[in-house]
Amino acid sequence: FRAIYLGVLFNIMVMATVSLAMIKIGAVMLQWSAVKTLLIVSTITVIYSAIGGLRGILLTDFFQFILAMVGSVGGAYILLQLPQVGGLSNLLSHPNVISRIDLFPDFSNTDALWTLLIMPLAVQWWSVWYPGAEPGGGGYIAQRMLSAKSEKDAIGATLFFNAAHYALRPWPWIIVGLASLVVFPDIASLRTAFPGVDPAIIQHDFAYPAMLSFLPSGFLGLVVAGLIAAYMSTISTHLNWGSSYVVNDFYRRFVKTDAGETHYVSVGRITNVLLMVVTCIFALLLSNALQAFNILLQIGAGTGLIFILRWFWWRINAWSEISAMLASLVVSIVLQSVLGMDTNDAHGFAMVMLITVGISTVTWLTVTFLTAPETDETLIKFYRKTRPGGSMWKPIAAKAPDVKADTGLGRDLLDWLAGIIMIYAALFGFGKFLLGETLIGLGLLLVAVFRLLIHASNFWIPFAETVN
After folding, report:
1. Closest CA to 303 of 17, 14, 10
2. Is residue 464 pLDDT above 60, yes or no?
3. 1 near 325, Cβ under 8 Å?
4. How far apart are alpha carbons 185 and 180 in whole angstroms?
5. What digits encode the pLDDT tens for the residues 209-220?
6. Rounded (10°) CA dihedral 78, 84, 88, 89
7. Residue 128 φ/ψ, nearest 5 degrees
């Protein structure tokens, strides 16, 4: 169930969102229609994803990341020099920008307060499943960790990914986004500047590719190549991840159980193609990224908590997870399609989120206590492999007295907190440094380094002791 739910349903939604971005880039940069853009980029991506497999994706991701970062950083620098923008200092003092660079939203703007501060901090981070930031882990991040040659390499690579993804990569995009508020202050100005593009797809997320049209020809080619590389990297990852779910967790177990590896590889390649075809169809139905993002958040609301607690509470079973996923899907569809609650409105979005989380949580807790737990054999095997800490595993720990928990729950929480402080200090440190507040920026970057050292000592010392 989870293989189809995540590997197909959610996976197609995510790929469609990314494909929508590619449609808008193709419209601005190359004057291509949506169908032509999707046909070309998806065909290329499917071919090398199917032929190369995970190794091919990892190798191409390495070079694509470098290309994309060079293009985005260089593009941000060049666009800051536009006469309309006038450099970083003029940009930051522009009336359209001043209110957008505050850490906290305007408290009088209740829409921004709910969607940007209250919901993410109070509910969203622990309750909502979203690919790449799944509460409790999973998805393609776990796939990459499992492809590493050792536990040490997996943790180091994941730490680097989080720093690069959250602390480094956003700032070139943010700077270009701020500059777009000066050059294209509203959607009407975007539609006036690009009369040949379908007005339906010119929404707020059209501003970034619109800004790139000001780049000089030579560098524009590099930036477009970087954006296409970013698209191919994301799509190839999702195709490989989705087909592995479908083949290994569904087809191989329930449809054809006795075939050779060549057969399953072929089925995986066919699955890649089918996933891409459905993704392209769905992408053509979307108009803006926020629309798809809200759909993902609403459907995944209520599942996050169980994906966290399954590591800390032995009583959670397969039916707990299935009921949570089904409940969140059904409740969100009923609230939006049957009752007509509007998630484009900030208060409507918050209400749908809270109701879905509440009903889903009550549902899976009820199902958990009404169904039998996993067998002792399964639970003990899981306990021996993962060595979870905390008191909620004590009944199983008592049945495996020879296994010592890897760390205590308190130590895990400290590691978690150190990781959060490190990433956010690095994110805001780079930002403050770029936005001219050098002293504060350096201070935050020093905090990030300090937390990194604490995080490293909490892992490397026990790891070294274990190896010895």
Report:
1. 10
2. no
3. yes
4. 7
5. 899 889 998 888
6. 160
7. -115, 135
